[in-house]
């Protein structure tokens, strides 16, 4: 990721000389990190000097840290000029796209995207996942790092494929999970083969990591826990059936890890009016079977929904810290080509607002968090 502005943290280190600031203890630096209000500030902190970068990398919970700042919006439909970026892949054709930081829209950000990596299949942990009928390619849009999977055990329908990572590529526990319409395939990044797993009612079509565990959801909103070690095992979680989360009630739905809550966020489908509102449900595991309970308020949380259904939904705590709003859903407005804020349970205001979700092979605007904020070292 490139920026034309110098955030405050790096300039702060020059006030009394870099050497003095470099000697600050990790414990003190760790208390500073949660106070920073944007991805750019966190990147600047990490780039200040070697000892600060080490402190950033050793922060005990980056998955919590990344919920304290808003994600970045990659506007794949808006390209910007940039100096040539060298690539180790002679077949790689990079295009430069505009990136918006909601906490400071005056800073110009850019990212590089390889537009010749087959069909788009998903986005997670700052990575884009592409597929063909023979293999998958995972591309980190902020570092340019690319990983190619082994050849798939059988041809898949790339147009309908969904893919998600369980951790960034650089993590030792990273696993790529895809579905081809009938089967889930698992690739432990770095291994030489895929593992196939089929479910009676059909494959998992959405994956989210919550409290260190992998959860999945199928097309009928059944919920599963995915065990990756010592071998692949998918366990269905008993959840009381509810019409409130059925496809007839919610036209689109996403699993979202939100602090200590696992949420289901979806579009409420109206019959007599084209208006659409977001509704949120929280998984309550205090009973057996578990229940999806409707959430009337998100309290001090905000949810970020990408235009493409295959991009993972994200959450942010205390958005007022960077000028955002709690109890809201941030999503992309197709007409104005910008992000908008919708209050929970409230329809869009104004006739010019058009929120539309799709599942195309071409890249759509999406919210992402750079992979470095999810690494545990």
Structure overview:
- This protein is mainly beta and 377 residues long.
- The chain folds into two domains: 26-60, no CATH class; 66-79 and 93-373, Neuraminidase.
- It contains six helices and 25 strands.
- It has helices at 8-12, 18-22, 26-32, 39-47, 50-57, 62-65, and strands at residues 2-3, 72-79, 94-100, 109-114, 119-124, 127-131, 136-140, 146-148, 162-165, 175-179, 184-188, 195-197, 206-210, 213-217, 223-227, 233-236, 250-258, 261-268, 277-284, 291-295, 301-304, 314-317, 328-333, 338-343, 366-368.
- The strands form six sheets. A five-stranded antiparallel β-sheet has the order 1-4-3-2-25, with no helix packed on it.
- The radius of gyration is 21 Å and the shape is globular.
- The two termini are 21 Å apart.
- Mean pLDDT is 81; it is low at 2-16 and 84-91.
- InterPro entries: F-box-like_dom_sf (IPR036047), F-box_dom (IPR001810), Gal_Oxase/kelch_b-propeller (IPR011043), KIB1-4_b-propeller (IPR005174).
- It comes from Triticum aestivum (Wheat).
- Residues 117-356 form the KIB1-4 beta-propeller domain.
- This is F-box domain-containing protein.
- Residues 21-55 form the F-box domain.
